[in-house]
Amino acid sequence: MTKFLLLLGPSGTGKSTIIRELRQMDERFIYISPYITRPLRENETDKVHISDQEMDLRKENGEFLTINNLYGIRYATPIEPITKALEENLFPVLDWPISRMEIMTHSFPGQLYAVYVCPPSWEELQERIGKDQRNKDAGRIEAARKEFYEFKTGGYEGLFDFQVISYNFGISEIAKKIYLNYLQNI
Questions:
Q1: Confidence band (pLDDT; 50, 70, 90) for 120?
Q2: What is the rounded CA–CA span in Å between residue 7 and residue 144?
Q3: What is the pTM of this model?
Q4: Beta 35-36 vs 162-165: how paired, if at all?
Q5: For the residues of 3-63, what is the DSSP string, one character each?
Q6: N or C: which end of the chain has fewer CB within 10 A?
Q7: Domain residue spans in the chain?
Q8: Which of 169, 9, 181 is nearest to 94 (CA)?
Q9: Tens digits of per-residue pLDDT, 84-118?
Q10: pLDDT over threshold 70, residue 176
């Protein structure tokens, strides 16, 4: 039996880049593309854009595990690709907010492997978020600051299985560590 791999951690820690590395390492990793209500950015192919109305309709039809509201955008997690990947012994993977872990632990008991991706320092995280031009209203910085503090003070103890530090120069090595630990725990 495989497990649903969740990458946790503040915005700017490189979770999306790690997911791309994992998918290159092993084709069994299946990225669970979230549905979002904002238009896709140029070259953004890992998400599915839908309108608010379509998201509401799909929610009513039971297609989504949940809808998260982050930074003024609605993100919906589809159920079917997760269950299908698990049934086919593939490795579903998703970037997930640690503040919403109860949804996953309730929906997939015993089927999760959660990895917390921590920045090397608060200063490094601020720099990363500032570079990507997605922090126009300072919401990402504030959310990252709160999560970083909560993590550092032990507020997330017991919510993840493994932890890595996301150094800029070592994404391939980080992905390899996650991969090896994941394989040992499925």
A1: confident
A2: 15
A3: 0.89
A4: unpaired
A5: -EEEEE--TTS-HHHHHHHHHHH-TTEEE-PPEESSPPPTT--SSEE--HHHHHHHHHTT-
A6: N
A7: 4-32+83-184
A8: 9
A9: 999 999 999 999 999 999 999 999 999 999 999 99
A10: yes
